[in-house]
């Protein structure tokens, strides 16, 4: 049997990853997963500060599985409020099904 | 007149020295759309090696140096780092079309130091047979830290005032710590400590020193590609950045040459040292400056400061600045 | 409040990534995110041309959030039509929820 | 027209990736995709054995698109049963839509 | 007879030279299931270093060379590159079980050049004390580009004709540009330009040259592992690829030896040069050839051409080809 | 008494030798929160280079060595590898708060060998002018494999008995193969084979040997950062691991010194060889040991064994062990 849970995905600049994970931990999530990413968005112009020719993968994609939808929205709001005026980034939510609800 | 001729000859010959040749080569590759990639790991390691080389050597020499001799150049370095930022604050940051915090951040980057520009100058001076006190490259942090810290403080003062007119105090100590923790200063200081406190002579002579020149050529290639690639970011910001990017390195270098000359008169600072001080001041940070500023002045647009520094400031500092200070040194000191 | 959007995922060979992102941009998407990937599929035999022993992560996983489902399908169809006869790759769609619809 | 399919995601330690992909293949999946990942979870303490300072991305995120939900659950159960007592890891399922069902 | 004995002795000794020993070592590791990994970044950097070393040295020598001397070998290189592709087109590509475009792509890969095979031969010749004009390795692009371009053109002509009988023209210039932009030719040409136009002597002697031999050993190890790993791809394609993979390098090498010998008679092309020309022709591209072909002839099955080149062609070109041409050179020129 | 003074002097001077200085430097950087990163690719390549250097040199020397001379030290190495594991099984693994399989895994790691500790000792001995048979480093696998295999076997026996009282047999051969396939032993054995069977002298002298010392300094830096970073894992396990981490390297080293001394008396094993044998025994595996144990004894908690080895065992083995064995060697052999 599976249980519904929410996944929140945050794609943003590597530079602020520490701040983002702090928000995630403070929200009480049980963990998170991070992947190196490259990308293009509306702020393609905002350069990362690392040499572009050697570090194209300067974005990160952070995923958090949260037990409640509330926690997911709270994380998304906080990250957007704190960072997305000055740093590039997007967030979105997805519904997922987990098998071992005690983990989250 | 002779100075000019000498400078021009040197300027042209300069393009044949490997440092500059690799820089130009990198630009040409990027312009041609080449798919050549230097892996990120190699870039990071080359930077680490350069800074360790500079640090260890500096440390070994400081061990034997008369510390008093270093004092005046160190003070001048800090004065220059701060002076450059103040200068940018009252010029660039007030120009039409330039956002104040963008201007301050740019001045911070130009006040800070580029390890690769410094390394290029060291190699060229060695080839020219111009000597300098080996601790001169260790002046790096004395100029780099004050410049970055001051820029961050000035930007915060400005932004706070704009926001609420209030007079929130900016905490300086965390900015300094943050800056020392960056990868560039960490490596340099580690090298300095190792050179000062331990006996790394053999590993220095067998590894860090012989690879210096070669890894520098690789870095120059990367910086050339980078300079070209970032050019289009500049198109999105005010033209003043281009003007600043061309003029600032030379103005800063000449200011430093002047102060260095005073140190030469007062404490016998070597001609080579004066030239390197000018190079330090004329260079703009390419490795740890940008992320530090990006994190500490988030509202500043990085396209403005990284574009003007990487695409214009650094090429000018290397291609025009270095031969200029050498020609000037020759004219002034007649070596 | 959240808004429905579609995510299209394309997993394919690194070699054609430029062509794929061009299709995405032409379709009018506001951006995309790319991640290095390794994988195995029906065409495991088609080798990538880069030394396999040093470059195992020779696939890319490209994600695009699109405002309309239409745009997502259009991208998927174009990529498949243009490339999947000769290059390995798969695509799939997911429903996601976005918080700031003006971004997409 | 699109068809429903299930995506199973497994995030776990790189060390056991061979065992995980074997389970996936034995279950009859048509392929899988793998991405390097970093993360934090309940077992943050269990270190991977590779120097943490040089190999922070020591997790992998494995994704499998399966034609039937059954196959997905079977993979999830087997991986959890065989590994998750001793290695860190999570799994979850998502619904996706595929365009070319014959591929899976 | 003596030639054969000489070749056999040389062939056996050859396995003790580092280049081949590392190649065989890599195969053995892969066969044994070793988990040893050479990181991708190191591989890319080693290839870059090799090509820069070859390019810079070539450039420095061309500066002083009599350009007329280079002319005939350069023309022969292009003739060989094209000749090899035509030969493959009328043999391999027409064999039963071989798809025409697969055969053409394979011939293109065998007509193109492998930097590591070339480097291995350079190291072995140096150890044998056989000298050659230093510009010989710079013949690389004269053979590589025509071969790849011709293969792409022939494949497109075939595919167009098959599709609609029409006579759509294939554009050649974009293929050449694309090929020059690849990472291998970019690095080689950058090195050539730097060697020709600037004074990179010190960085060459202190960095690119001394690391050459060592990084080559690392590359040979990788190529050995790769050759073994790709063997199973070959199992999925026609047996003719195995036959071609064994015979073609030697046939191409001998064709080149013949043309080189003519250049020796006509313009005094050195014996070492003749041998290297044979090595160039006998080698098959391993770095930039495969992705170029994959992008330009997408319908061709890469398992066929990469499998036959990496798993068979390259080991044969190194292990059999190089000692064969040296033995032949000794017999013919009596050095 | 004199021994103690000598050891203390040496201990203090030791901190000035590059190997240790970089280790301490790495710890300091990590403690300070530095963002310096040495890329994973560089780490992997440095380890590869070190093991190839040790292997090739060992192989070249074994070629000329009297194999009989190696026999006794090789047997002693295996005895030590097993002895250390048995010792840990009956001490550490039975202490309160220590899970039996955790204790066994830890003993396995301390019985196995660290290539970087070995390399550091080789560099220090060279600086001290202490000579040893060049095949001594090639004793590595004779100690490493038996230790890991025995630990895995003992843990499995224990776990099987606990589970069902049954007497399921543990298969030894797959464990040995798995261990030989690991990246560290693969590289070492490849180097040995190349040194033994081929003529890699030039590539050894021009590449693997000169880079040895420098890459070792980089590895030491990484190990220092790692030691500090892992310290907090230790807080989560029993205090006994700390005691074991401090005492075990020295006890094992002294046991090996004793056996080495017997070999000295019996077959004339050199004083430097005796010291290196002590270093091998005193070191604990940092590269391939941990993943091997993690895969083969999955229920053992890696925080316990990796923490005690990386954060305590290795620093003690290098900073205290190496100078101790040298001082002891001086006292005993009077070189
Ligand atoms: N429509 C999109 N689909 C997928 N990823 C996107 C999209 N738009 C933006 N991104 C990602 O989010 C990052 C920041 O976007 P932005 O803030 O728009 O510059 C980009 O670099 C992409 O990696
Ligand atoms: N069932 C699947 N689940 C997840 N990824 C897949 C699946 N099938 C194929 N892939 C990915 O798509 C790539 C190309 O697949 P193919 O075209 O089947 O060779 C593979 O290398 C995998 O990365
Ligand atoms: N709530 C979560 N959201 C996303 N990823 C998670 C979460 N919890 C754990 N993970 C990932 O799963 C890995 C293993 O988790 P664990 O077994 O809890 O240590 C972590 O390293 C993360 O990469
Ligand atoms: Na400056
Ligand atoms: Na060829
Ligand atoms: Na040991």
From TrEMBL, chains A, C, D:
Q: Which GO terms describe its molecular function?
A: enzyme regulator activity
Q: Which GO terms describe its biological process?
A: regulation of nitrogen utilization
InterPro entries the record matches: N-reg_PII, N-reg_PII-like_a/b, N-reg_PII/ATP_PRibTrfase_C
Q: Which domain of life is it from?
A: Bacteria
Function description: In nitrogen-limiting conditions, when the ratio of Gln to 2-ketoglutarate decreases, P-II is uridylylated to P-II-UMP. P-II-UMP allows the deadenylation of glutamine synthetase (GS), thus activating the enzyme. Conversely, in nitrogen excess P-II is deuridylated and promotes the adenylation of GS. P-II indirectly controls the transcription of the GS gene (glnA). P-II prevents NR-II-catalyzed conversion of NR-I to NR-I-phosphate, the transcriptional activator of glnA. When P-II is uridylylated to P-II-UMP, these events are reversed.
Designated name of the protein: Nitrogen regulatory protein P-II
Q: Which residues cross the membrane?
A: none
TrEMBL record, chains B, E, F:
Question: Any keyword Protease?
Answer: no
Q: Could you tell me which InterPro entries the record lists for this protein? A: Sbt_1 (IPR010293)
Question: Where does the sequence pass through the membrane?
Answer: 15-34, 41-59, 71-92, 104-125, 137-159, 180-198, 210-229, 241-263, 312-333
Q: Which UniProt keywords apply?
A: Membrane, Transmembrane, Transmembrane helix
Q: Which domain of life is it from?
A: Bacteria
Which Pfam family, an example, fits this chain? Sbt_1
The protein's name is Sodium-dependent bicarbonate transport family permease
What are the top taxonomic ranks of the organism? Bacteria, Pseudomonadati, Pseudomonadota, Alphaproteobacteria, Hyphomicrobiales
């Amino acid at each position: 049997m599976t249980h519904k849970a929410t996944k929140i995905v945050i794609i943003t600049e590597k530079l602020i990853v520490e701040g983002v994970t702090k928000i995630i931990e403070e929200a009480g999530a049980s963990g998170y997963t991070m992947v190196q990413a490259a990308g293009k968005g509306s702020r393609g112009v905002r350069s990362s500060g690392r040499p572009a020719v050697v570090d194209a993968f300067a974005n990160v994609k952070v995923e958090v599985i949260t037990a409640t939808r509330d926690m997911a929205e709270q994380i998304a709001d906080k990250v957007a409020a704190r960072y997305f005026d000055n740093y590039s980034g997007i967030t979105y939510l997805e519904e997922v099904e987990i098998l071992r609800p005690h983990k989250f | 007149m002779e100075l000019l001729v000498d400078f021009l000859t040197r300027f042209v010959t300069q393009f044949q020295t490997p440092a500059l040749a690799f820089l130009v080569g990198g630009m040409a590759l990027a312009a041609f759309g080449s798919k050549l990639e230097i892996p990120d790991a190699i870039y990071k390691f080359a930077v680490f090696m350069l800074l360790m080389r500079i640090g260890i050597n500096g440390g070994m020499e400081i061990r034997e140096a008369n510390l008093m001799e270093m004092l005046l150049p160190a003070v001048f370095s800090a004065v220059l780092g701060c002076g450059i930022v103040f200068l940018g604050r009252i010029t660039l940051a007030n120009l039409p079309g330039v956002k104040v915090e963008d201007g301050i951040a740019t001045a911070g980057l130009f006040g800070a130091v580029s390890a690769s520009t410094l390394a290029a100058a060291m190699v060229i001076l060695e080839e020219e047979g111009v000597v300098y006190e080996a601790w001169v490259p260790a002046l790096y942090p004395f100029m780099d830290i004050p410049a970055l810290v001051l820029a961050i403080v000035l930007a915060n003062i400005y932004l706070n005032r704009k926001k609420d007119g209030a007079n929130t105090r900016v905490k300086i100590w965390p900015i300094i710590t943050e800056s020392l923790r960056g990868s560039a200063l960490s490596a340099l200081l580690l090298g300095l400590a190792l050179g000062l406190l331990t006996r790394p002579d053999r590993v220095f002579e067998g590894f860090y020193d012989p690879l210096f020149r070669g890894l520098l050529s690789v870095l120059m290639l990367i910086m050339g590609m980078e300079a070209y690639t970032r050019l289009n970011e500049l198109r999105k910001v005010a033209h003043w950045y281009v003007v600043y990017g061309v003029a600032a390195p030379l103005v800063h270098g000449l200011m430093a040459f002047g102060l260095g000359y005073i140190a030469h008169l007062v404490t016998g600072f070597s001609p080579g040292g004066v030239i390197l001080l000018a190079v330090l001041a004329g260079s703009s940070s390419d490795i740890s400056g940008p992320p530090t500023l990006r994190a500490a002045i988030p509202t500043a647009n990085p396209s403005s400061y990284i574009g003007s520094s990487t695409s214009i400031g650094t090429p000018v500092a290397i291609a025009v600045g270095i031969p200029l200070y050498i020609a000037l040194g020759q004219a002034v000191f007649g070596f």
